[in-house]
TrEMBL record:
Pfam families named among the record's database cross-references: SnoaL_4 (PF13577)
Record-annotated SnoaL-like domain positions: 56-177
Origin superkingdom: Bacteria
Organism, scientific name: Mycolicibacter terrae
Protein name according to UniProt: SnoaL-like domain-containing protein
Taxonomic placement: Bacteria, Bacillati, Actinomycetota, Actinomycetes, Mycobacteriales
Residue ranges of the TM segments: none
Amino acid sequence: MQVEPQLSGQLRQLGVHLDADRTTVAGQQLHLMAGHEFSVAQGRYVFDMASGSAVSITNLLYRYAELMDAGDLESAAALFTHARIKADAEGTAVLDSAELLALWRGLVKIHPDGTPRTKHVVTNPILDIDEEAGTATCRSYYTVLQQSDAVPLQVVAAGRYHDEFERVDGVWRFSFRDYSMLELTGDLRDHLRVFGGGSG
């Protein structure tokens, strides 16, 4: 089966160039698979961020950031209703969504405008989607910026999320998040109470 021109362009962006017959790469047959994947002798590739599953999953990442920055801790925690949350590097603390919400309520400083005065920026999502099984994993980076009456605009934290997802009744949802990978910290005193922030 020949590959349509639009898909050929996507392959070229990944450094994979089809032969003239548009069915092989370097003489090796191109095998299209579910989930907008393809394989050749060089290996297995995952691509096409426009696919429905990829958009749904990354939207969950971005929705989490949007809700946290709005100060809507309840709705942010609800995203993890069916998930396990790894809260420490050793994996000894595994939370459910109610415990996660309680942690946030005790930790995150909410300012007079009803928000934590932050912007969570989630980048570099690396997805691996199993369409047949209805499961997926994603590794991503996060950067937290903050500006308040007490602190100038600055980066206050950065780290990684490792997430797992499941598709139930056609809808993707979180099934696991490793929340323990806070790797870089700045001035958190006006964001997290443990660093000296008041009740807000």
